Amino acid sequence: MERYICTICDYVYDPAVGDPENGIAPGTGFEDLPDDWVCPPCGAPKSEFVKEGS
């Protein structure tokens, strides 16, 4: 699974880790995150993320 980076604060969403503090289980792909999920540190929407290496 590919990692995605927030273009606002550089937080990296790693599917292997998920976002357990916000109810996202490890193994959850970025495309499977709920539409209302936001970047944990800065609150940016999913639309502000880019695929790592892009």
Give short descriptive properties of this protein.
mainly beta; 54 residues; globular; 3-stranded antiparallel sheet
Verbal overview:
There is one protein chain. By secondary structure, the chain is mainly β. 0% of the residues lie in helices and 15% in strands. It has no helices and three strands. It has a three-stranded antiparallel sheet with strand order 2-1-3, with no helix packed on it. A hairpin with a 5-residue loop joins strand 1 and strand 2.
Number of DSSP helical runs: 0
Estimated structural class: mainly beta
The parts where pLDDT drops under 50 for at least 5 residues are none
Write down the secondary-structure element order: EEE
The proportion of residues forming helix, as a percent range, comes to: under 10%
Chart the SSEs and their pairings.
Layout: E1 4-6, E2 12-13, E3 49-51
Antiparallel strand pairs: 1-2, 1-3
Summarize the structure.
The chain is mainly β and 54 residues long. The protein is 0% helix and 15% strand.
